[in-house]
Amino acid sequence: MILRIRTLGDPVLREPARPVTEFGPSLRSLFDDMVETMVAAPGVGLAGPQVGISSRLFVFDDGETGPMFMANPELSDGVGELLEDEGCLSIPGPYHATPRFARIRCRGLDLDGNPFEMLGEGLLARIFQHETDHLDGMLYVDRLDDEGRRDVMAQLRRIEMGIAEPRATPED
Ligand code: ZN
């Protein structure tokens, strides 16, 4: 089932999400729905709050990992910096160069509640940071300076007014 993606202005995007404590069939069904929603969007990552669920979980697929699930992520060992265009399904359309660690470790729990960790580089590192931000009530525009934020909002207005087409690049 495709879920409704919450967009900028929805308060759930600004709430710190609660840790996941129950692992079972309903979580697996949520995973299936979130992956279906992410693929349809299309996007490379989708966090709980983006579908109105204030839980510390996200799904992702950087094109190499296949669809994956991560609950209660903890980021560590961030190194380097990459400044690349970033977008968000909750701010549909605009992109802006956003600084992120080039490589980062993400530890969390899988669908069965078992701990695992992944080392992300490039796009995968960006996804881990973008999605974990969502769980803290943060959006990528919060990582930009005033000029960057104004540019994103101007792009958004142009798209909403039909003056510009959203770019067809996958969003996080
Ligand atoms: Zn996002």
Q: Assess the beta-strand content as a share of residues.
A: 25-35%
Percent helix: 25-40%
Question: Helix- and strand-based class?
Answer: alpha+beta
- CATH class designation: Alpha Beta
Write down the overall geometry.
globular
Q: How many β strands by DSSP?
A: 7
Annotation field: number of helices: 3
Task: Identify every distinct bound molecule in the structure, by name, code or SMILES.
Answer: zinc ion
| CATH evolutionary superfamily | Peptide deformylase
| Mean pLDDT metric | 95
Oligomerization state of this entry?
single chain
Q: Strand order, main sheet: write it out.
A: 1-2-3-6-7
Question: What does this protein structure show overall?
Answer:
The structure is a single chain. This protein is globular. It is an alpha+beta fold. The strands form two sheets. It has a five-stranded antiparallel beta sheet. The longest helix is centred in the N-terminal third of the chain and has 16 residues, at 25-40. It has helices spanning 25-40, 123-135, 146-160; strands at residues 45-47, 57-60, 68-79, 82-88, 91-100, 103-109, 115-121. Helices cover 26% and strands 29% of the residues. The structure holds zinc ion (ZN). Residues 88-90, 130, 134, 172 line the site of zinc ion (ZN).
Task: Please give a quick description of this structure.
By secondary structure, the chain is an alpha+beta fold. It has three helices and seven strands. The protein has a five-stranded antiparallel β-sheet with strand order 1-2-3-6-7. A two-stranded antiparallel ribbon has the order 4-5.
